[in-house]
Automatic annotation (TrEMBL):
Residues 333-355 are annotated as: Disordered. This is Protein kinase domain-containing protein. Residues 32-329 form the Protein kinase domain. One of its GO terms (molecular function) is ATP binding. It comes from Lolium multiflorum (Italian ryegrass). Pfam families: Pkinase.
Length: 355
């Protein structure tokens, strides 16, 4: 009996088709019940879906009827483009659904039948949840040195950057357009995976920037040029990335309000407060290597949120700066971080102006 049980356990799960029927997704999420809900956003709700007779779990994103998604063939094409992506820091899409159904809706004083397009995207399920909850949820603490330790947070920062590098450096680049802590999921080993491509744009080979009249995104993470002029480019993602790096490093939450869609007050506060003296105080028990890493991450994050998009570093320079940190320390002994406020020239040592 033990042998038979072992054979049964090793039997691979049947592969799901790429295009999944709406009724199937409705069934595995228990009719999209609140009990199966993982999280929600203005553009859709994420549910846990349990495959029948398999106990395999997937995450099902049901987009809102008014979500800013391309319909029909364009939606299918863009989802299948993202499905083809294979990278350790990108959440794997396992299927999608795009079906039109009849729905009875009230119009003025009567009911009419309307065509409703149901758009859903299915992802691999990651039980650790999103970065937002892990950093700032009930289980997290506010201290910079407690909660998720610095080594793990630094690994998360580098992983997010590697995932974004992969997207931006594809032969046909993908701009995510909605990077924020809620859209970074963590696996069991705390490896970050960029998720939720509902707003992503696939750029043509010769296309580096475009404009749109319909600006949608998450308050507090939208680049100014996108918010006010509808300009979309890789630097839109860099702006959002900078805010994420700052939040992870400082453990201070970006709390945007209606007057601060690009989080300028939060950015100004971090730029003013997080001096070398403040870093040494917050990370008082850390060694010089950790203090240097923290300083570098804050400098990189602040460089990413420059108002002028042309001043923001490209993703390959960001990855190089973070990956080169350890190699630089191996070559030269790192002096301890000064307890005095940094001079105007000291920033170049950590930034992108090093010769």
């Amino acid at each position: 009996m033990a042998t038979g049980s072992k054979t049964q356990e090793s039997k691979p799960s049947p592969e799901l088709p790429t295009e999944l029927p709406y009724d199937f997704l409705k069934k595995i999420t228990n009719d999209f019940s609140n009990d199966m809900k993982i999280s929600g956003s203005p553009f859709g709700t994420l549910y846990k879906g349990i495959i029948p007779n398999d106990d395999r779990v997937i995450a099902v994103k049901k987009l809102q009827e008014n979500a800013p998604m391309p319909a029909d063939k364009t939606f299918t094409k863009e989802v299948t483009n993202v499905m083809a992506l294979k990278h350790e820091n990108i959440v794997q899409i396992v299927g999608y659904c795009s079906e039109t159904s009849k729905k009875l809706v009230q119009f003025d004083s009567r009911y009419i039948q309307a065509d409703i397009n149901e758009s859903l995207i299915c992802y691999e399920y990651l039980p650790k949840g999103n970065l937002e909850d892990n950093l700032f949820g009930p289980q997290a603490t506010s201290s910079a040195e407690s909660g998720i330790n610095w080594d793990t947070r630094f690994k998360i920062i580098k992983g997010i950057c590697k995932g974004l590098h992969f997207l931006h450096k594809l032969d046909i680049p993908i701009i995510h357009m909605d990077l924020k802590p809620e859209n970074i999921l963590l696996d069991d080993n705390m490896v970050p995976k960029i998720a939720d491509f509902a707003l992503s744009r696939v750029f043509g080979e010769e296309q580096t920037r475009l404009c749109t009249q319909r600006v949608v995104g998450s308050y507090g993470y939208m680049a100014p040029e996108y918010l006010y002029r509808g300009e979309i480019s890789a630097q839109s993602d860099i702006y959002s990335l900078g805010l994420i790096i700052i939040e992870i490093t400082t453990r201070e939450k970006n709390l945007p309000d209606k007057d601060q869609p690009s989080a300028r007050s939060f950015i100004d506060k971090v730029s003013k407060d997080w001096t070398e003296m403040h870093i040494a105080d917050k990370y008082g028990s850390s060694n010089a290597e950790v203090l240097r890493q923290v300083k570098t991450c804050i400098d990189v994050g602040l460089k990413c949120v420059e108002i002028d998009r042309k001043k923001r570093p490209p993703i390959d320079k960001i990855v190089a700066a973070l990956n080169g940190l350890h190699a630089i320390q191996m070559e030269n002994e790192v002096p301890p971080v000064s307890s005095t406020p940094p001079s105007k020239k000291s920033g170049s040592r950590f930034g992108f102006n090093r010769k």
